[in-house]
């Protein structure tokens, strides 16, 4: 993710979407999805460690029957981001995605107003960082479901 003033940008640059499905987010919309959690949200969800999450199409070429996405997360107390490559199997109502290297699974569904819902699988999601590992648990805590809005594509560059 980038050092940007996202709350201000999101307020000034609405990103209308034509999305009616998960696929539309990446084919008709910007494909760029970012959510920064403010202090009030984090105070209301004390077990949430994720402070920012981003999901966008990977620069790598898709494989037959799969869509490749880049997933980035930042967490409390760490000044760097974690990245994972996700291999997603498109479906009519949802996409089933797995992280590279047996890093776990998640489901993507379309929500209203250009938002994707990322639901962490029960086995969690594992990320390898520059200095350590991170696990988001799918069966406990407040890092299980993320609503990630579509934002203008230039915010993901």
UniProtKB/TrEMBL annotation:
Q: What keywords are assigned to this protein? A: Signal
Residues in the signal sequence: 1-19
Protein name per Swiss-Prot or TrEMBL: Uncharacterized protein
Source organism per entry reads: Neogemmobacter tilapiae
